[in-house]
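Thread: Newbie trying to understand structure tokens

Hi all, I'm a second-year student working on a class project, and my supervisor (Dr. K.) asked me to get a predicted structure for one chain before our next meeting. I've only ever worked with sequences, so writing a 3D structure as a token string is new to me. If someone could post the tokens and maybe explain what I'm looking at, I'd be very grateful. Here's the chain:
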Amino acid sequence: MRIIVDCMGGDNAPIEVVRGAYAASLEYNASFILVGDKAQINAIADADGMDLRRFDIVDAPVTIEMNDDPLCVVRAKNDSSMSTALRLLADGKGDAVISTGNTGALFTGATLIVRKIKGIRRAAIAGILPMDPPVLLLDSGANVVVTDEYLEQFAIMGSIYMQKVYGLSAPRVGLLNNGAEECKGTELQLKAYARLKESPSVNFVGNVEADKVPKDACDVLVTDGFTGNILLKSIEGMGKLMLSTMKQLFMADARTKISAVFAKHKVSDIKKRFDSTEHGGAPFLGISKPVIKAHGSSNAKAVKNAIRQAISYADSGVIVSIARETKLFTEAAKSSKAEEKKTDTAEKTGV
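---
Reply by user tm_fold:
Sure, no problem. This is what the structure looks like when written as tokens:
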């Protein structure tokens, strides 16, 4: 397994990214290509006493900033560390890419450089919501505008992911909506509901309201990227608020501090669940090779866990299964349209 690491994107790059990649090299059975400013990477290694002789370093000092236009990855900054990393993946020089950089640019680059799986209309960011059990959210921020067909494909890809990665035999798919009734929502939700209800590849359980998401209502939750990103960040923010409130409670006085000692392990479990550094990153489902987006504020621990996730995703067989299912799905759709056309012609001609 060979992991390509974009070292220059994100709030804490390149120092935390390099540290995370080095930590991963000590723990996981993989080799690494570090893409970025070679002088900076070597300076970080020297300062921390890291031996990078086992790493391949590709010099690409140009950085895509967080406020850059996403298309710069293939235009103005096509020599950037992110662009270079994606080209290495596309050319078969590695098995997966991870980046903490500009989400829009990484998604655009993955789509235009690495390319989508044949038959997939739009790739999507697969974010894990820290519920018990976990819920896969598609889309978590890539596609602001979607169609009911996109949502069906998100549902299929998400189901395959939860089967392969989490071992679920028939993942339950819910459609995020403002009510549980079939008649709720905009035209998009109404069309998506009808499509998902009839889809043979999806175990559809209906509309799911936001307050039901933490109550084991579904395993895969589909929505547009705008709504999904708001939901994801709201949950992350609420998790931080909850942990901060608990800390204030336990530190209030001597009695609560004593209670904190006995509750320490349980609190640590809760903290771990809502800690974004534990989850590492989110894969782009629908891209033909593994691309993992780590949080922009990732520290070394988060980068290491993103690499762990990249290795797991590359080994899971998710991409092959999505390609196979999409082919069957596309062929069935073509057959259905051909049959409809044949019927229409027969009705018009009276034959």
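A couple of things are worth pointing out once you decode it. The CA atoms of residues 162 and 168 lie 6 Å apart. Residues 318-349 form the longest helix (32 residues). Feel free to ask follow-ups in this thread.
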